[in-house]
Amino acid sequence: MLELKHIQKTYQGSAGKTEALRDATLRVKDGEFMAIMGKSGCGKSTLLNIIGCMDRYDGGEYRIDGSDTKDLKRKEQAVLRREKFGFVFQSFHLLPEYDVFHNVALPLKYKKIPKKKYRDIVLPLLEELGIAHLEKRMPGELSGGEQQRTAIARSLVNDPGVLLADEPTGNLDSENGETVIELLTTLQKRLCKTLILVTHDIKIASYADRIVEIRDGRVL
Amino acid sequence: MSVQHIFLALLTESDLHGYDLKQRYDQLMLHETELNFGQVYSTLLRLKRDGLIVLNKPDEEDDKKTYAITERGRQELQNWLLSPGKGSLVMCDSFSYKLAAMQILDTSMFLRIVKEYRKQMMEEMRRLTQKKLGTPKGQTGALLLLDRSILKLEADIVWTGKCLEQLEKEEAENA
């Protein structure tokens, strides 16, 4: 269970302060698929970064499975991020010098899993996502849809409880976008993951169990 | 009006009982609008009165009444299918009438109503998307029907977003 109460976040830029989040309160149950919808600049990516412990908040309270996250040290935050969350980004964030297999296996390296176990963990995921035949291809040789499937496989390789997806279909055409969101929805249900997805697109948000809107840094 | 024409379309396939017509209608409309038996029989009476269908003689084994489409019924169905409908295609739905009424209300009331509609439409779009996900890929007609409803809702949701921006700006200026 993720619980955010009155979360605030302000960025200090050269042009002055920007209030990215003014009052974000929400609760996400285990196994729920929640879409956070809003226009660009409304604070939805900031909110997702705070949920995924990639960014700190200035005010309010954020509890993960009942534990307060306010005073976590950087190292503790990094461990929590690695163990609890999987990330899917709009621009895939694949390493161009690694093939599909090694891109997906990358988080295992940081978790210090022995290399001989990589195949047993990675191959079933590649099969699940329909990209097993592409395991030796480099990211530059893949379509946008195939790159995003690779990124989804990578987000699942550590078996996280929560998947965080930031505009996962934003760089895809509508047909590939639909395929990717259907795949994410099916995987979320079958693997019993919590999925939090941010999008500006109601078509994508409507695949979720629940839609919340965010406007001017406030969850409505 | 449309129930009558769906019945005529169903009767072009085969002669049917009132009960079968209800079942097939509900299936075609994906159980989004279900008919009650009162509507079924009043529709059949009207179609029969207008000479668009006839009642078959009950056969010996089965005394249920079946209905058959007439040549006039086939012609009426064809005319209906090819006609785009009377008046504007986009301004005659019930939502447009509500919008027309809303123009008389003050901004804060208008804003409240649009917010509520937006919430309801988003929930409806979510519900129909789940229904689409559960519909087998081979059911092209059902999927296209759902797609159309989803796209119409999407357009209205985008529109409510524009409305909120405009109305909130007006309200802030008037405060």
Explained architecture:
The complex is a heterodimer of chains A (220) and B (175). By secondary structure, chain A is an alpha/beta fold. Chain A has a single domain, classed as 3-Layer(aba) Sandwich (Rossmann fold), CATH 3.40.50.300. Chain A contains seven helices and ten strands. Chain A has helices at residues 44-51, 74-84, 100-110, 118-128, 144-156, 174-190, 202-205; strands at residues 2-13, 16-28, 33-37, 59-64, 67-68, 85-88, 162-166, 194-199, 210-215, 218-219. In chain A, strands 6-7-8-3-9-10 form a six-stranded mixed sheet. In chain A, β7 (162-166), α6 and β8 form a beta-alpha-beta unit. In chain A, α5 (144-156) packs parallel to α6. Chain A is globular and about 45 Å long. Chain B has helices at residues 2-13, 18-28, 37-49, 71-82, 94-102, 107-133, 140-174, and strands at 16-17, 53-55, 66-69. In chain B, α1 (2-13) packs across α4, α2 (18-28) packs across α3 (37-49) and α6 runs antiparallel to α7 (140-174). Chain B starts with a helix and ends with a helix. Chain B is built from seven helices and three strands. Chain B is elongated and about 80 Å long. The model of chain B has no long low-confidence stretch (mean pLDDT 88). Chain B folds into two domains: 2-82, Arc Repressor Mutant, subunit A, CATH 1.10.10; 94-174. By secondary structure, chain B is mainly α. The interface between A and B is small, with 10 and 13 residues.
The fraction of residues in strands of chain B falls at 5-15%
Strand portion of chain A, in percent?
25-35%
Write down the secondary-structure element order of chain B.
HEHHEEHHHH
CATH topology call of chain A = Rossmann fold
- Quaternary status: heterodimer
Strand order, main sheet of chain A: write it out: 6-7-8-3-9-10
Shape of chain B: elongated
How many helices of chain A in DSSP terms? 7
Identify the CATH class of the largest domain in chain B.
Mainly Alpha
The CATH architecture of chain A would be 3-Layer(aba) Sandwich
> What ranges of chain B have pLDDT less than 50 throughout 5 or more consecutive residues?
none
Q: What's the shape of chain A?
A: globular
The helix/strand class of chain A is: alpha/beta
| Head-to-tail CA distance between termini of chain B | 48 Å
Number of strands of chain B: 3
- Integer tally of domains of chain B: 2
Number of helices of chain B: 7
Which CATH top level class of chain A fits?
Alpha Beta
